[in-house]
Amino acid sequence: MNSRRALVTVILSLLAVSVQAQWLGYPAKHVPRNADGTPNLSAPAPRTSDGKIDLSGVWDAVEHPDDPAGGIEGIRSPKYMVDVMRDFKGAVPFQPWAAELFKQRQANKMRDNPMIRCLPAGVPRLSAYSHPYKIVQTADLIAILYESQTLFRQVFLDGRAHPADPEPTWLGYSVGKWEGDTLVVETIGFNDKTWLDGLGHPHSEAMKVTERFRRRDVGHMDIEIVIDDPKAYTQQIRYVQPQELLPDGDLIEYICNENAKPVGQ
Predict the structure, then answer these.
(1) 228 and 207 Cβ atoms separated by less than 8 Å
(2) Most exposed: 37, 48, 169, 240, by fewest CB within 10 Å?
(3) What are phi and psi of 99, to 5 degrees?
């Protein structure tokens, strides 16, 4: 099994449950409707009572269209799920140790992918992953509930700073603020166990991730992601992963261990 085929097997095994995971058929009460009752996804983005853009809803990363640079082996996937470096022209700006680790992961056909062992996808990988997630927004806190492995994340908007000496975690410590209609979230305090994407681009515990959430209308949102990790890369990594609203669906629990199988089975 070559490395690309191994990656296809991993992706298929991880996607198997998400296809049927949404709680379908219950219409969302606050989504505007067309005359025929279908969701009007191009209507203006909703706002909260204090005038902020309301990011609430069930979202999913947009699949990449069928083009030579997207997906692999005929599998359509969110644009940056497989390779966050896909837009780089020329060599990836690795630090030497990160280049060597990436090379090792390719050589062993990515068998040490932590998600094969049902460990979390991590941030920012969850923004380009194939399972839906729900945003619950309040004035001082945004909760992001991920169907993937039934994870949750808290983004504090109450003015607090990051912990001075954070214990390394899988999803980090997130604080946010509004800049006009854009929610800016800065996250630090990661462990170095997650991968940035399906190909296995690594990061260090010094990584800082900045996400800018822009809801363009009811049904569409962009998340601009900037990865700043000078210990692993000689320059910032930036990309924008589009998101789509799932207006008439919801989450159910996903316990990865129930579905775990060795690669190739």
Answers:
(1) yes
(2) 37
(3) -60, -40
